Amino acid sequence: MTQPTMIRGEQPLAIALFLATFGVPVLPLRAGKVPFGNCPGCASNACGGRPNMKTPGPCTCPLPCHGWAAATTDPAVLNSPEWARAWREAAAVAYHPGGAGVTVVDLDNAQALSWARETLPATRIVCTTRGEHWLYRGTMASSNAVRDGVDIKSTMAYARWLGPGTGAMTALPEVVRGLIVKEPAAVRPTAVAVPAPAEGGKCPHRSPAYLYRGIAMAEQRIAEASSAVHNTVYETFLAVLATHGRCGCLTETHTARLFTAAQAKGESPRHCADAWVNALTRLGM
């Protein structure tokens, strides 16, 4: 994101239009730093929203509904009659960091600031009412309360625009990405049902390397899931069982590797077990 600079005191719509010219998706905020609520037609997501709410932009409703997902860079939308009332009542402007290609580390107290200064690489800093926003180039999943006073705002989130800040923006470091990675819970492979060998245990695979590659690919597929993790885990388990589950070469060690990969993405042991059992049931095993 190219950092825009502008004079304080501009009206929210003027700020939004200015930011949009730099490719920053924006939306109005009402008092309390919250987005405008959904219209009656979009209440409780009755309109269907955007597919999985993965990308910014409104649904077919022309109003600024759906919070962060309404953020846009389209001046025709920002200037539309449907958005006019929202801009008149707006108390501030927000932007979608992920849509702008950045991640905001929101630091809300003195302890969080001290930790950031000791731990994180220097980058562009924006002062807030309670602390600072540290902006990094790159995107990741958003998560609140990753540690005391620290929130991550990037994809599927919004941040209040408080000015361009100071300092050069640096690349998103692994230490920030690591803040949302949960330690996998202990895996108990003895509790995992492993299919019994069929047809006398004869394995149709040419070599053990075939199974090794299959498990490694399954681990990679789970690790690379950026959304719909539950479905990805289930579909991966299903694929592994469909290919390797009937010959007897799949062991508890292999299933433990799959469970560990899933739990590293935030899945609980129970979710893993449920997905495994559902896959076995689907295959009639």
Task: List its traits.
285 residues, alpha+beta, 6-stranded mixed sheet, 4-stranded antiparallel sheet, 9 helices, 10 strands, 14% strand, globular
Please explain how this structure is put together.
The protein is α+β, with helices and mostly antiparallel strands and 285 residues long. 33% of the residues lie in helices and 14% in strands. It has helices at 12-20, 75-78, 81-89, 110-119, 174-177, 208-223, 229-244, 252-264, 269-282, and strands at 26-30, 34-35, 92-95, 102-107, 124-127, 132-137, 143-147, 150-153, 159-160, 170-171. The strands form two sheets. Strands 4, 5, 6, 7, 8 and 10 form a six-stranded mixed β-sheet that branches. The protein has a four-stranded antiparallel β-sheet with strand order 2-1-3-9. A hairpin with a 3-residue loop joins strand 1 and strand 2. Helix 6 (208-223) packs antiparallel against helix 7 (229-244). The longest helix has 16 residues, at 208-223. Residues 184-191 have low confidence and may be disordered.
Tell me the span between the first and last alpha carbons: 51 Å
Q: What characteristic shape results from the CA principal axes?
A: globular
Order of helices and strands: HEEHHEEHEEEEEEHHHHH
Oligomer: single chain
Structural class category: alpha+beta
Count of DSSP helices?
Answer: 9
Number of strands: 10
Residue stretches low in confidence (pLDDT < 50, at least 5 long) are 184-191
- The overall pLDDT average reads 83
**How large is the share of residues in beta strands?**
5-15%
Give Rg in angstroms: 24 Å
Largest sheet: 6 strands, mixed
Helical residue percent band: 25-40%
